[in-house]
Amino acid sequence: MFNKMTTSKSDTTTGSLRSLKSIDTGKRSKSPSSYRKKCDLCHTPSDVLVRCRIDDTLNWHFVCTSKCWKEVSGGVVDGPDKPYYVYGGMWKNKHAGVSAKKPKGKTGVHIEDWNAYNTRYVTNDKVRYSGRIWVCRKSHQSSETKYPGVDYALWKEDEQRNRVI
To answer: Does 8 map to a domain?
Structure first.
């Protein structure tokens, strides 16, 4: 099979056939950058985006992890200062070999005594209560009824650290 431009079979190379096939089938190139998504706010292509709700429409948006996420969230996953903000997970370009995990800090974990008076606790915060270490399961505002050892929906015992104490 030859089109009008082809004069012989040797003119039809495998490479040109592959490029025509990818155009015909709508397939993306093999480059990881071709799989990037754009930030809904600044439209910058990125390999890692935060899925979140940011306004009263309650629609999910993908925002870049640099300046846009900090602007919409206040720099906190479940920050109290942004009434419409809801964290919905991370999207990552699986073709780029990137990680969406936060880098681990070199400093030790800071553990404070639990406070019953309107303290904001976020997921994975650690507190000391009744001589035990507890981990926050769900972000919440503390009160006299939401304390570790009673409200297991909000707190779990840190068994690994409690073995050492």
So the answer is: no
